[in-house]
Amino acid sequence: MTDRLPPEAERFLRRLADALWELASDEREAILLELRGHLSERAAQGPEPLGAALAEIGTAETLAGQFLCAATIRNDAPPAPIPPAYASPRRHDIRALFGELRATLRAGRNGLFLVSALLITVLTSSNFLLWLDKVRPELSLTGWPIFLVRTLVLLLAITAAYRILLSEDERPWTVDTRTLRAAAALVAMLGSASILVLALAGGAKQGALAAGLTAGPAATVRNLVAIAVLISVSCAFLRVQPWVAALAVGRRDIGLKRVWRGTGPVFGTVLRGWFAFVFPFYAAHVAITFLAIKVLPFGGNHLLLAELDAFVSTGALFAALLLNATAFRWVSGEAIPAPRPFGNAAPDAELVAEARRRLRVLMAGTPQMRRG
Amino acid sequence: MDITSWQSQLRKGAAELVVLSLLRQGERYGVELLDKAGGAGGVLSDGTLYPLLTRLEREGKIVARWVMADDARIPRKYYTLSADGEMLVAEMQRTWFEFSAFVTGAIEESAHDRPTAARGRTIPASTG
How far is A125 from A241, CA to CA, in rounded Å? Predict the structure, then answer.
């Protein structure tokens, strides 16, 4: 939608966009559009004014640093909305979304701890337990009690992950009413989705898709309807995920209705993000599971695959949580906080005291100016 | 003493007042602000203006809206003073006038005193 500028100006804007990846997309777009307009006017005056403007602006990284410092100031008022025609193309940019995911991760205070906690959670994944069950059947780790414990740990890990990524919660692993609400919402969603899948699978069993295509039009239609319902429910499931994040961080003002409406305009981006960042992990998980169960005999190789599957499953879970957390920020309208060097936390008390002391000494040694 | 560093600090302090004062005259966008402040001794530059506007907007001193002007191909972000900004700039201008009068007075006094003192130091004690 925007006109092309001379190459040096386009290069500058690209570098600025890269350097501003910490900012929320709305803010980044607004800055880039304003700078594009500025450079466009200078370019219209001729190559010299444009060159002078670029020289005065300096490097994209320095300018970005100034914007990031400004962005640490708390802003309660909503920013001026960009004309939609100029805002929409960038919203669907996967690269920009990747920037937001990275920013969400960096804003989390304890990303590595989170990864290891999730990894421990998924180390007890079905693939691993399946191997153990075959090698040491007397342990029988695939029973219902183990399944229940695994599910509870996973729900706690998900709630904690949202708190680490989205709030300043000092005790993200504490079980409280927020944990219970988020867990209940997740269980309700996963439970209803599972029931639906089982029902659809039961229907499909009567006329499986492959057979249905040849068994006659009625079976084919039934199977296609089943697939369409499954896709729709999956999309709806994906669309309301930020609500679970809201429950986990105790944001009661962000209800299911607000999340549903909020994710509507950005759902295309969320879906693309899911296919770009989450789906590859799922695909790898399916491939590993297939190899482990169908191809390799249970033994050392299987264990290696089970371990690899734990990493892959952690990746899938972690990418999905990051995506949902980012979608939550879009819905709530919150900017992603800039990471440290640019943080505006209260200065160190000792440094302030030392600065005051030096100032007093300086003032005491300065003769007072006379007037008149 | 590094005069460049001192000048830079001086400009930083004045830039906010210049922008707010220009916006007191009416709604303006970035290029317009720079052109209006063109001769203001380098107080505003292409590189410092937009982060400053972002900061002022976030602090609630100015408000912005996007406008598709007839003579532009890209929308412009126009800024105006908020109610808080109006009060602030009036106070800043009053403070600035008092401050500049004080500083100018002190500098002028110093400039008047200096030749005598200088002569006192440079004239030899005995000229014969």
Answer: 22
- Measure the CA angle with vertex A329, ends A94 and A256; round to 5°: 110
How many interface pairs between A and B have CB atoms less than 8 angstroms apart? 93
Distance CA A196, CA A306 (A): 28
Report the Cα A340 to chain-centroid distance in Å. 19
Q: Report the distance separating Cα A179 and Cα A164, nearest Å.
A: 13
Determine the straight-line distance between the first and last CA of chain B, rounded to whole angstroms: 39
Q: Does B71 touch chain A (CB under 8 A)?
A: no
Identify residue A353 by its one-letter amino acid code.
A
Judged by CB atoms closer than 8 Å, whether chains meet at B51 and A82 is answered as no
d(CA A153, CA A317): 13
- Count CB atoms within 10 A of the CB of residue B121: 7
- A62 vs B contacts (CB less than 8 Å): 47
Neighbours of A111 (CB within 10 A): 17
Residue closest to A163 by CA, chosen among A182, A148, A187: A182
Residue to test with chain B: of A29, A48, A66, A370, most B Cβ within 10 A:
A66
Contact A58/A66 with Cβ under 8 angstroms? no
Q: Which tokens belong to A294?
A: 């169908």
Map out the domains of chain A as residue ranges.
7-96, 108-332
Interface of A with B (CB under 8 A): 2-3, 30-31, 33-38, 40-42, 53, 56-58, 62-63, 66-67, 69-71, 73-77, 79-83, 86, 369-372
Q: Can you give the residue ranges of every domain in chain B?
A: 3-113
Between residues A273 and B123, which one has the greater pLDDT?
Answer: A273
β-sheet bridge partners, residue B67:
B76
Question: DSSP assignment, residue A140?
Answer: -
Structure tokens at A201: 């699978």
Residue with tokens 């008047």: B112
Residue of A nearest to B101 (CA): A371
pLDDT digits (tens, 9 = 90+) for A90-143: 444 676 677 777 767 766 766 777 777 788 777 766 677 777 777 777 766 667
Task: Determine contact: B40 vs chain A, CB below 8 A.
Answer: no
CATH 1.10.10.10 fits B3-113, yes or no: yes
Low-confidence ranges of chain A (pLDDT < 70): 1-3, 22, 72-93, 95-96, 103, 106-107, 109-110, 124-126, 139-142, 201-216, 296-302, 334-372
Q: With CA atoms as reference, report the closest residue to A1 among A27, A31, A36.
A: A36
Q: Would you call B6 an interface residue with chain A, using a CB distance cutoff of 8 Å?
A: no
DSSP string, A56-97: HH--HHHHHHHHHHHHTS---SPPPPPPHHHHHHHHT-HHHH
Choose among A37, A69, A73: nearest Cβ to B75: A37
Angle subtended by helix axes A279-290 and A300-332, to nearest 10: 160
- Is B30 in CB contact (< 8 Å) with chain A? yes
The ipTM, to two decimals, is 0.80
